[in-house]
Design goal:
The chain is of the alpha+beta class and 127 residues long. The chain has one domain: Ribosomal Protein S5, domain 2, CATH 3.30.230.10. 49% of the residues lie in helices and 18% in strands. It has five helices and four strands. It has a four-stranded mixed sheet, sandwiched between helices. The chain is globular and about 45 Å long. The N and C termini lie far apart (31 Å).
Length: 127
């Protein structure tokens, strides 16, 4: 069975992001920051935000792919009636921005780490 990630499961507009950020609960760890807010749709939706402070476009795009993939592979195991906004933590952003350690930090960041962080943050927000 494939795990699609259609457009209806994405937060696209600034208004949608703002609603989650303003009304949602927040949790963070050394890798990610997650905002989670109820939605009336019956399925989870994801918004990803990776700022320019994280590095150049190549770095930001890799991070966004990792975050989206963590959601896509777990979308049927997480609470369904919520919107999620995923961001990288300020700590990780700082380490990625540094010339000396940035490439190593990005290379060392695995999908498994991102996925575990995502699921852990959801568990934290549910309790």
């Amino acid at each position: 069975m494939g795990l699609p990630f259609p457009k209806k499961r994405r937060l696209a507009s600034n208004r949608q992001f703002k609603a989650v950020l303003d009304h949602g609960r927040r949790a963070g760890d050394h890798l990610l920051t997650l905002y989670m807010a109820p939605n009336p749709h019956g399925y989870p939706r994801l918004g990803v935000s990776v700022g320019k402070s994280s590095g150049k476009a190549v770095v930001r795009n890799r991070l966004k792919r990792l975050l989206r993939e963590a959601f896509r592979q777990n979308q049927h195991q997480i609470p369904q009636d919520f919107d999620y906004v995923l961001m990288i933590s300020p700590r990780l952003a700082r380490s990625l921005k540094q010339a000396q350690t940035g490439k190593r930090a990005l290379a060392a960041l695995t999908f498994r780490q991102v996925q575990e962080s995502f699921l852990s943050l959801i568990e934290t927000l549910q309790s």
